């Protein structure tokens, strides 16, 4: 059980592009590391980024006071598409990258999210990315913040 917990922690704390290796020592103990052992056979473990594949809405655990916040990971293609789209439209946003920020990981945990990207605006939350849904989400929540 300790080894499984260690494996999960290593997978969660390591950026998706890092190489993770698994091997069993002479005593039958399973080990994980970022470099393969020189004297034993090991296998490379694939680490994947959990992304939302559809869009859903919910109340946010935080009030962003009208700011648009996006929780991302480095290797999330939907996160990168969303950021590129927002930049191309001049939409201001606050990126909180789970691969680089401990604070972002703590906030993300409080959201009880299970994937990325996660968008927050005011007290509203959107999970996942679709260009037209993001535009609607921003517009609707901008009007709510303005009291319309």
Please describe what this structure looks like.
- This is Glutaredoxin family protein.
- Pfam families: DUF4124, Glutaredoxin.
- It comes from Thalassolituus marinus.
- Keywords: Signal.
- The chain folds into two domains: 44 residues, no CATH class; 91 residues, Glutaredoxin, CATH 3.40.30.10.
- Helix content is 34%, strand content 22%.
- It has four helices and eight strands, in the order H-E-E-E-E-E-H-E-H-E-E-H.
- It has a five-stranded mixed beta sheet with strand order 4-8-7-5-6, with helices on both faces.
- Strand 7 and strand 8 form a beta hairpin.
- It is elongated, with a radius of gyration of 19 Å.
- 18% of the residues are buried.
Chain-wise SSE layout:
Blueprint: H1 2-13, E1 20-24, E2 30-33, E3 43-45, E4 56-59, E5 68-72, H2 77-88, E6 94-97, H3 102-111, E7 118-121, E8 124-127, H4 131-146
Parallel strand pairs: 5-6
Antiparallel strand pairs: 1-2, 1-3, 4-8, 5-7, 7-8
Using brief descriptors, characterize the structure shown.
148 residues; alpha+beta; 2 domains; 4 helices; 8 strands; 34% helix; three-stranded antiparallel beta sheet; five-stranded mixed beta sheet; elongated; Glutaredoxin
